[in-house]
Amino acid sequence: MADLRACYRLLLGRAPDPHGLATYAPRIRRLGIGVDELVSWIASSPEFRARLPELLGEGASPIERVELAQGFALYVRRDDPALGASLAAIRDYEPLVASRVTALLPEGGVLVDVGASVGFYSVLGGRAVGPHGRVLAFEPGSRNVSLLLLNLHANGLANVAVHELAASDRHGLLWYGGTGSNGRVRPFDGEASRLAYNELVRADTLDRVLAGEPRVDVVKVDVEGAEGVALRGAAELLRRCRPYVVLEFSPPSLEAASGESGRDLLAYLENLGYQLSVLSPEAFAGVASGVEEILACFRSAGAEHLDLLATPGD
């Protein structure tokens, strides 16, 4: 019992409460656990995790509310190098892409936000389509989903449905890991040790999840190299609803994340009757082309990715 009281005092900064004593004391007596295991139990508790940033001198919370140029606010993590830090500094995000997505969404329309992250496009789209429209947001990362839900609540949006899963080309499980709000999925190989540094997340196809959707106006896809996998799982949706598709295009990321070439993804969209054009970077915006010209734009742009618009043909 002395070890239990010491762990509470050192790790939680307080004496054990009656519930804590009733929880841990029988385990100590019955199982004869040592100090290391007792420390592990208490250190994994929600109370200790909530106290950890303060103990490390990082403040009570890394979350900050940021007023954006698009006219709404987002809560972001200040220590997120992928998105939060830049949003807090610049207070703007992908202005060319954001303006095009807004222009393509009619009042009462439907946006499918694949790779919703902390909710920039879900909030943008929810405001654009109005109370009679809808946003269907897909995000597998649990930390991102928490901020996504907070941002929807903060902006008073009741027209966004959140699906906590990865959009893929099949139903199943995937490994998810990444840096900050940027996450990548990898095939699930059944290796339990990977849970030490990855999340295990549900995966499904957009065709399966959205089979009953009568209308989709825009599909936005930004999933760190799994864009082709997500869109191949949406073939029927793309044929049936003929939405615009806005996607991040990076051949190296496609190769690394899913083993697919940039040429293969562009050809897939062309075969579905889509015309391709570049949205950003700005110097290449508006270039409409086929597969080879888009690939040439990527090589000459010197950027990590291009943002593309796929427009359905007649």
CATH topology of the largest domain: Rossmann fold
Q: Pick out the low-confidence regions.
A: none
**Terminal-residue CA separation:** 75 Å
Largest sheet: 8 strands, mixed
Provide an overview of this structure.
- The protein is of the alpha/beta class.
- The chain folds into two domains: 2-55, no CATH class; 63-312, Rossmann fold.
- The protein has helices spanning 2-12, 18-31, 35-43, 46-55, 84-90, 95-104, 120-129, 142-154, 206-209, 227-232, 235-241, 251-258, 262-271, 291-301; strands at 63-67, 73-77, 110-114, 134-138, 160-163, 166-167, 172-179, 182-187, 199-204, 218-221, 244-249, 274-280, 288-289, 306-312.
- An eight-stranded mixed sheet has the order 5-4-3-10-11-14-12-13, sandwiched between helices. Strands 6-9-7-8 form a four-stranded mixed sheet. The chain has a two-stranded antiparallel ribbon with strand order 1-2.
- β12 (274-280) and β13 form a beta hairpin.
- α13 runs antiparallel to α14.
- The model has no long low-confidence stretch (mean pLDDT 90).
